[in-house]
Amino acid sequence: WLFKGYFDLSVKDTLKTWGLLELVNSVVGLIIVLIISMVA
């Protein structure tokens, strides 16, 4: 729970923030893969 320590968030907020980051990472990764497959 490093984030919880740094930002002093509740567990719910920590999970929400982490979930959001994971979602953004997934979307960005997907877009990059699509672009690469279109270019290749």
UniProtKB/TrEMBL annotation:
Keywords of the record: Membrane, Transmembrane, Transmembrane helix
Keyword Ubl conjugation included in the entry's annotation: no
Pfam families the record matches: GntP_permease (PF02447)
One annotated GO molecular function: gluconate transmembrane transporter activity
GO CC annotation terms, alphabetical: membrane
Transmembrane regions listed in the UniProt entry: 20-39
Name of the molecule in the record: Gluconate transporter
